[in-house]
Amino acid sequence: MDTPQLIALRVLMHQKNIGAVIIPTTDPHGSEYIAPYWQVQRFITGFTGSAGTVVITGDKGGLWTDSRYFLQGEEELAGSSVVLMKDGIPSTPTIAQWLGQELQSGDVVAVDSQMFSVNSFLALKESLATYGITLNMNLEHDLIAPLWHNRPPLQAEYIWRLNNNITGQNTTTKLVRVRKAMLAGGVDALLLTALDDIAWLMNIRGNDIACNPVVISYAVIYSDKAILFMDRHKLKRSTFAPLQAHGITVADYGNIFTHLQQFDKDKKIGIDFSTANYALYQILADRACVIPVRSPVGAMKGVKNSVELAGFRKAMIKDGVALVRFFIRLEKGLKKRTVTELSASRMLLESRAEQPGFVSESFETIAAYGPHGAIVHYAPTEQSDVRLERKGLFLLDSGGHYRDGTTDITRTVALGKVFLRQRQDYTLVLKGHIALSQARFPQGTRGTQLDVLARQFLWHNALQFGHGTGHGVGHCLCVHEGLHSIRMQENPTVLQP
Hints:
The protein has helices at 4-15, 40-45, 70-77, 95-102, 118-129, 139-144, 164-167, 171-185, 195-202, 237-245, 256-260, 278-285, 296-302, 306-336, 341-353, 420-437, 447-460, and strands at 20-24, 53-57, 61-65, 82-86, 108-110, 134-136, 160-161, 189-192, 204-205, 218-222, 226-229, 248-251, 268-271, 289-292, 358-361, 366-369, 393-398, 400-402, 405-406, 409-414, 470-472, 481-486. It has 497 residues and is of the alpha/beta class. Helix 5 (118-129) links the parallel strand 5 and strand 6 (134-136). 38% of the residues are buried.
């Protein structure tokens, strides 16, 4: 059954002669995990996954998402007019192909240009143009704002700083590195939009997004100054003064648009077309000389220094202690038959919170018993919560942010008797994990080239998993961090020490 919001959206679409709307799961910063304020897709459809794009027409709809959310998408959209579109499956049409079949030439598709990177917006515009379909870029203002009366506000908690003994480099040193990259790229200014890039560069952290210690912000870096655009009410004197000392001016978050309007053709400004949103690019395109660059911060952030590495090891030890204590408590609870998926999640959080320097969970704990373990990013709710029994498999995928590092730990444990097939599959996965962890490889190797080591034993038995094998982890930052990865999909980034 469609949500009341979806029904109301279609009424507005009809009134404004809009053929379709496209709503991705992201925010103006291209974030994977987003603040409730930007969870438009969840508000309209009820889908709660962290990746996907919803397309709504006058009477139909589709959710394009990857294999992590196939089961979840089917469950959460069951009975509605929005159907699951299995992204990555050869038989699944692209969004443009599907709209080309559902709409007529001359129809208009509404999007919020702040929710699309420059590259993704231009690609969508070009692909829709082949069917004579045009884009209206005011989805947020025209269609969503009138419907969302009780929209959650953005967080207003104070930000905090990480000292040099944790980061290994102060902000001035990092800015020098960025400015060298700017000089090499021939730009006078650099626009930063990715929240973890900005947090890493400024050595600041916040609580603006659950499980992601980032600050909702933009930054513009010049050769002699830097401007941080954020909610200034989140700054205490103890955090504001160090920013000033590093030559950083703080301006209101919304002033980024006014600031970019002041550029002229004499100024060359670098923008990462893969992350910067199209609304910002559109402001600059008519005024400044826009140079497409790859943000240098991502590559710097991904290669950890010796202090960060030491912090990771400390965080892993603390996390290991927390997990051991949790499993002891779990074992005792199972004997009393009182543990559920949700209570296990709370129990694990309590164990982590006992550790020094604990900040928060690094993502919502996936505590999945039995069949729930097949749902890749399953998170228990009051409706889905089940009691754990002394039999079968229990999947626990969780992690923690500590001031000196971040963890992402997956454990699958037998709570009692398991079937032969479960043992066999578990063993095949374990063999692949061991093979990958023992790999030695030459300089210049990409994660894509190593991925087969983890899958080879599954493939020998005609088995496969659809998600990635490994990813970078931020240093008290986003748990999923590029630019490197270990997965089947091609990634040109080489692995570095």
